[in-house]
Write the structure tokens for this entry.
Amino acid sequence: MRREERYRGVVEYFSEAMPVAESELEFRNPYELVVAVMLSAQCTDRRVNLTTPALFDRFPTADAMAAAEVEDIYPYIKSISYPNNKARNLARMARMLVEEFGGVVPDTVEQLERLPGVGRKTANVVAAVLFGREVMPVDTHVFRVSRRIGLTVGAKTPLQAEAQLEAGFPKHLLPIAHHWLILHGRYVCTARKPRCGECGVRPWCKSAPKE
């Protein structure tokens, strides 16, 4: 099967089975999304969602967080993975957001990547979710699922996978395709025991067990 056929089948399936697909992170505004996505690195969305309500009560705006010290932020995120590093990055991110962007989350990947602690994946998530940018954030789920299905071939890094996925999916579908692959990887095409028997993508998946 050619990759074009795989993409076509995957798009057709998810368009019908998952016409609405959104981030499972809970947020109320752009500032909260940036913080939540930063915290979600190597951590579950569930854990982040349990942590952020108290954090946002204490630091409801970028200005409030920018005025805080690292040791003020740490107690609120200590249950998150790598809390020391993330507390430092949150403080630095908020200060740059206030000082250089007037507290307004920038709307391009390039500007977002300037924020401390915001790497390419985080920048792409924010750009796609908030601004509908035609980009493909690649996390561990997207990387694994796209390789298994055969949407990517020989991609050794997230950046290589990103390039192949952005070339393969119709541009206007990239923001939702990101969520399709994440949610599929989270609940069906899991890392250790993929549920191939209940997978709707199976007809187009190069790794599916032969019947």
